[in-house]
Amino acid sequence: MQENNLNKGPRLKPIMIEVGGEPQGVVVPDAEGYRFLAVKLPAFSIDGQKFASVEGAHLAVRDAISGINAA
């Protein structure tokens, strides 16, 4: 018998991060804010990083693909 009343919690959708009209990745909710998951090569330098806000992630992606603060 299957349980029909399983509480799986709310599912939050990823939020796309675009720079210059090009999708670079998504942020997904994380216990400490948001985690960035890159989908384009220029953004892979910050893949997996955590950010306090979506805006912070967007700025970091923009900087990463433009070469600002490149290591």
- Return Rg in Å: 15 Å
The total number of structural domains is: 1
Largest sheet: 4 strands, antiparallel
Count of discrete alpha- or pi-helical segments spanning 4 or more residues: 1
Reading the helices and strands in chain order gives EEEEH
Structural class: alpha+beta
Question: Averaged pLDDT, please?
Answer: 87
Distance between the termini: 55 Å
Helicity level, as a percent range?
Answer: 10-25%
Q: Oligomer, anyone? A: single chain
Spatial sequence of strands, sheet with the most strands: 1-2-3-4
Shape: globular
Structure description:
The protein is of the alpha+beta class and 71 residues long. It has one domain (15-66). 18% of the residues lie in helices and 31% in strands. The chain is built from one helix and four strands; from the N terminus they run ββββα. The protein has one helix spanning 54-66, and strands at 15-19, 22-30, 33-38, 50-51. It has a four-stranded antiparallel beta sheet with strand order 1-2-3-4, covered by helices on one side. β2 and β3 (33-38) form a beta hairpin. The N and C termini lie far apart (55 Å). The model has no long low-confidence stretch (mean pLDDT 87).
Features:
1 helix, alpha+beta, 4-stranded antiparallel sheet, 71 residues, 18% helix, globular
In terms of topology, how is this protein built?
Blueprint: E1 15-19, E2 22-30, E3 33-38, E4 50-51, H1 54-66
